[in-house]
DNA sequence: GCGACAG
DNA sequence: ATCTTGTCGC
């Protein structure tokens, strides 16, 4: 694994951020894709999986996976450079392309507004939403207990995402714009695909799929 | 210098 | 991220 020049990568992220479309620029959504990467700290490979679900049944119609040697280690704030290449590979192997991507990780909730969901969305120029399980940056007011409560996440005076109580007494999830979608529309799609779970179906299924890809690689 | 820190 | 058993609750 090559040791990356972070100042160069920071510039790349600023470029990707500048090209991010923060408004709705998507057509009718009939297929939703879930993206996740599986990796172990004791291995050098990363395993990407994309599952394609039909809306509104949320039944799986396609999936693709890709295993690659990681180009760099995990460094907070630079996740895209580690995970996006394998995800792009899986994308090109899909027999049908989804109209919208839900990525496990941040979108604009990132110091330079370039989380993995934005990185992947802009790279492919496909509508994308970031669904993260914990915080990267920003602050928010107290989140009410009731399911479906949501509060804005602010970083340096800018709303970068929403904290959503997707399930009762569960740790809330972070929703942010990835690319070509508004925050409101992103929230609509996440809520519509939750089905009583903490994580939306696309992301949840992608996590399982990525685990399968890793097991297959190790076998 | 100190604290924070997606996956 | 992954490593793991039991345990609590609907």
From TrEMBL:
InterPro entries to which the protein is assigned, alphabetical: Endonuclease-V (IPR007581)
CDD domains, per database record: Endonuclease_V
Presence of keyword DNA repair: yes
Source species, domain of life: Bacteria
Cofactor(s) of this protein: Mg(2+)
Catalytic activities: Endonucleolytic cleavage at apurinic or apyrimidinic sites to products with a 5'-phosphate
Keywords, ordered alphabetically: Cytoplasm, DNA damage, DNA repair, Endonuclease, Hydrolase, Magnesium, Metal-binding, Nuclease
GO molecular function, one term: deoxyribonuclease V activity
Pfam families in UniProt: Endonuclease_5
Site entry (Interaction with target DNA), positions: 74
Residues the entry annotates as binding Mg(2+): 36, 104
Subcellular location: Cytoplasm
E.C. number(s) listed in UniProt: 3.1.21.7
Entry keyword DNA repair: yes
Major subcellular site: cytoplasm
Role summary: DNA repair enzyme involved in the repair of deaminated bases. Selectively cleaves double-stranded DNA at the second phosphodiester bond 3' to a deoxyinosine leaving behind the intact lesion on the nicked DNA.
Family to which the UniProt record says this protein belongs: Belongs to the endonuclease V family.
Annotated NCBIfam families: PRK11617.1 (NF008629)
Cross-referenced PANTHER family: ENDONUCLEASE V
The protein's name: Endonuclease V
Native organism: Sabulicella glaciei
Gene label: nfi
């Amino acid at each position: 694994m090559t040791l990356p020049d972070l100042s160069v990568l920071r510039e790349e992220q600023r470029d990707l951020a500048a090209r991010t479309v923060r408004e709705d620029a998507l057509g009718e959504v009939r297929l939703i894709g879930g993206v996740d990467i599986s990796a172990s700290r004791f291995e050098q490979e990363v395993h990407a999986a994309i599952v394609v679900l039909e809306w509104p049944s949320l039944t799986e119609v396609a999936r693709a996976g890709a295993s690659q040697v990681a180009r760099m280690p995990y460094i907070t704030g630079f996740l895209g450079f580690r995970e996006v290449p394998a995800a792009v590979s899986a994308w090109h192997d899909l027999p049908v392309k989804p109209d919208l991507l839900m990525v496990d990780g941040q979108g604009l909730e990132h110091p330079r507004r370039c989380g993995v969901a934005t990185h992947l969305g802009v790279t492919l120029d496909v509508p994308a939403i970031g669904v993260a399980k914990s915080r990267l940056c920003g602050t928010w007011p107290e989140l009410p207990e009731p399911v479906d409560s949501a509060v804005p996440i602010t970083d340096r005076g800018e709303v970068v995402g929403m904290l959503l109580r997707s399930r009762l007494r569960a740790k809330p999830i972070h929703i942010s714009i990835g690319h070509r979608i508004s925050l409101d529309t992103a929230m609509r799609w996440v809520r519509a695909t939750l089905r009583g779970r903490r994580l939306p179906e696309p992301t949840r299924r992608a996590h399982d799929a990525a685990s399968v890809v890793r097991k297959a690689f190790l076998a």
